[in-house]
Amino acid sequence: MSKYYITTPIYYPNAEPHLGHIYTTVVSDILARYHRLAGDDTFFLTGTDEHGTKMVKTAAENRLEPIALADRFAGVFRDLWQELKISNDDFIRTTEPRHKAAVQEIVRRLHANGDLYLGAYEGWYDEGQEEFVTETDAKAHNFKSAITDKPLVRYREATWYFRLSKYVPRLLQHIEANPHFIRPEGRRNEVISKLKAGVEDLSVSRATLKWGIPLPNDPEHVLYVWIDALSNYITALGYGTADDTRLQRYWPVDAHFIGKDILWFHTVYWPAMLFSLGLQPPCCVVAHGWFKSEGRKMGKSLGNFIDLVKIRGTVSKYGLDALRYFLAQAAVFGDDPDWSETNFTKSYNELVNVLGNLLNRTLKMINNYRGGVIPAPAASDAVDAPVLEKIAALPGALARAYENYALHQCAALPIELARAANGYIDATAPFKLAKDPAQAARLDTILNICAQAVYAALLALQPILIERAVLGLKQLGVDPAGKTLGRLLGQSLPAGTKVGQGQPLYPRM
Fold first, then answer.
1. In which region does residue 138 sit, left (phi positive, over 0), alpha (psi from -120 to 50) or beta (all else)?
2. Is residue 321 within 8 Å of 470, Cβ to Cβ?
3. What is the pLDDT of residue 487?
4. Ordered structural domains, the chain, with CATH
5. SS3 273
6. CA angle 29, 34, 35 (to 5 degrees)
7. What is the pTM (predicted TM-score) of this model?
8. Residue 397, CA distances (Å) to 47, 393, 451, 462 in order
9. What's CA 498's distance to the chain center, in Å?
10. Contacts for 347-350 with beta carbons within 8 Å, 24 or more apart?
11. Contacting residues for 206 by C-beta, under 8 A, at least 6 apart
12. Which residues, in sequence order, are CB contacts of 370 under 8 Å at separation 6+?
């Protein structure tokens, strides 16, 4: 049995989650669920990043202590993931004692290895991204954040540095030797180009900030966000503790699933720290695009921000599966998806008119013509071949799509099979064959093929349609509980299986 460890970034709990957080987490959940169904020993981590300037400022604006703000919104994140049926195995907060103690041990080891030194910094700082910005980049963006467009802040203070530049040659060698370390490929090329342009050592502490984890070697300084935040991926596994069985079992991580804005930190800062600690780098860092809304950049000031109220309203109207399916297929993975009513309606109608329609038609025919029992097939005809070929090809194509993080294909492949099967019903006209006793064997074949097609499509959609795929399978007389996807997809639906009367998977809107 293989293992699979996947993480989301840990989110700032300074406001309610929005579409960006939900997109990252739902897609990570789809990947985790697929690997569990595939039989892999899977561990799925998410959590909250609770230190840093951004938390202090938001807390002050709300007349709260930072921990009170963190407690409030960390609870909102945790509760929302339960509400959306996210299957994470752990939820880590950077204010937890287990994380703080492990991070201090990480700092001790970095210091002992000679990779931390005391210096001074003066320059531009992007508070929203918790990132220092070079003079060149600051000028290029008119001294505003390239991400948030908010003004940069000028900082001057003593700081501890991590010897990032020491590890750049090794990091470049690793990226170039491992083409799948950064996905998609375009993001990989961005990182290589920036590394070759030159990288300075990394400031990792603040003497003027008190909300954070104190450095064990210099308690007047607290850690700057990136060592603190990035380390969650190993502190949650017990790094630096007496019990690191989780670390031994799951590291290196198979996929850090992130937004493209934090790619540099995960593909440069983090692997360099891991090199210093003597740990393997991540197997893969997967960077997705940013959601637009109705074709424009999403923002509160533009009136097109997709907030939690909007998400909950959508789920209430269309169901959780509809949201998950839309997010999975919203764009070629890595591109910027677009949230629009038109796109969502089109996506939902695929579930109604393609998948749900195929199931209803198949069950109705089997009940009307064969007493609710799936017949054994007779000899196949040329018209049967395209659907049979799609059924046979689905397991391999689906596995490749998940392996390549092509989430749009993971959603599209089963739906395209269902679409082909609907066309097959139209072409073969079983309702006409049913009137001719001489065509009984031919009708048996067609009904069996339709049942196999909708069965395979529903099986393949289980990681995405976490409620209705199982409901559909049970209407076909199959309970998938406790069975791996490979076992189920590798077997045909047995002739003689008793099917249900059929209930619509999705209501028409």
1. alpha
2. no
3. 86
4. 340-489 (1.10.730.10)
5. helix
6. 100
7. 0.93
8. 32, 6, 20, 16
9. 37
10. 347/322, 348/318, 348/322, 348/506, 348/509, 350/325, 350/415
11. 157, 159, 212, 221, 222, 223, 224
12. 444, 447
CA separation for the pair 352, 364 (Å, rounded) = 16
Angstrom distance (rounded) from CA 124 to CA 137: 9
Where the chain has pLDDT below 50, the residues are none
**What tokens does 136 get?**
């060149």
Phi and psi angles of residue 453, each rounded to the nearest 5 degrees, phi first: -65, -50
- Judge whether 452 and 492 are in contact, CB under 8 Å: yes
pLDDT digits (tens, 9 = 90+) for 71-119: 999 999 999 999 999 999 999 999 999 999 999 999 999 999 999 999 9
**CA 264 to CA 255: how far, in whole Å?**
15
**First and final CA of the chain: distance in angstroms?**
43
What tokens were used for 310?
């909007």
Range list of H helices, 113-210: 135-140, 168-177, 185-196
DSSP 186-229: HHHHHHHHHHHT----EE-EESS--SSPEETTEEEEEE-HHHHH
Compute the residue count for the chain.
509
